[in-house]
Amino acid sequence: YKKIEEIIISEKIESVICFHWDFFGPIAYLLNKKHKIPYYVIFHGKGLQNRWAFTGMIQKIIINGAKKVIVNSHFLKGIITKKFNNKEKIIVAYCGVNLEVYLKKTVNYEFIRKYALENKKVLLSIGRLIECKGFDYAVRAFDAYLKKNPDSNVVYLIVGSGPYEMMIKKIVDDLKLNERVRFLGPITDVE
After folding, report:
1. Residue 45: per-residue pLDDT
2. What pTM does this model have?
3. Which end of the chain is more exposed for a tag (fewer CB within 10 A), N or C?
């Protein structure tokens, strides 16, 4: 705290953005109380997964003290509004994408070969494998699609990792979709 306080004062920093409420939030809150420096909190879904009531009280104090709370979806805005009753403070700012990178028309043949995607249509999900993302629903919906379209040449690629990975893999196993659903884990931007 002291080192951050020294930097903020010596550099005449006018506001603070907290990318992680649990570590930087309390520091920003204390700096706000002591030096009247406004702070903003950025929340992603993971930031709301608290296991103790005490954590929820700290979150509420930090959110109430923040000038604004920035979230990456209206879904998350709804959760925070319901949990902390601070709708007017919440701003939705979607994650940006560099279109110059992702709209290139070049084909990555090495990736296609690596994952045996020749002549396949691809359904793709990218994200942290956590409960609120709904990967389990996507797998079940994919299974329903395949039952209606058994000759389809679609494969489902799941990119990412997280605490629900084993549960999702079990669903894939139970539905006998191992040939059609592929878990790629984290991949590079080039892939």
Report:
1. 67
2. 0.62
3. N
